[in-house]
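REVIEWER CHECKLIST
Item 1: Sequence provided? yes
Item 2: Single chain? yes
Item 3: Sequence as submitted:
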Amino acid sequence: AGRTVLSLPELGIQGPSIVGLIGPNGSGKSTLMRLLGFLEAPASGEVVYRGRPARPFDAATRFQVTMLPQEPFLLHRSVSANIAYGLKLRGAAGNLDPRIAAARVQVGLDPGEFAKRQWNQLSGGEAQRVALAARLALKPRVLLMDEPTAKVDEASSQQIQAAALE
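Item 4: Structure as written out by the authors:
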């Protein structure tokens, strides 16, 4: 809308690393995350990934970078189907059940209890952990998380933090 939301002359992040962004509301943190996640292109300048300029949905970045938004969106299906969805989009072959179960366990969701539970039967913290499990199952090179623990209880927050660090 003709206003500058983020002005960042240069930012370099070397991996592997954990980087946190802090700042007041409206300072451009989420915009930066969307740029780094290749979900939108900058109005000017470029985002360079692994030494090459990259744009949203480039083949070079598309399956290497994933983002967990602040408000997770789950498909109207089971926990397992939500976790499997990204794997299927990426053409993962074979029996996906072990990868799905491992991702559930990684975020602290008991496979027996959560495998068939539906999206609308989850608490906010459980939904956030399912969304994270779906990203972790993809084994991305870069995982971006926009305030993943902002709206969850302490137990879910600790499980999200542990899973992300692992």
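Item 5: Key structural point noted by reviewer: The beta strands are 47-49, 52-54, 65-68, 142-145.
Item 6: Recommendation: ____
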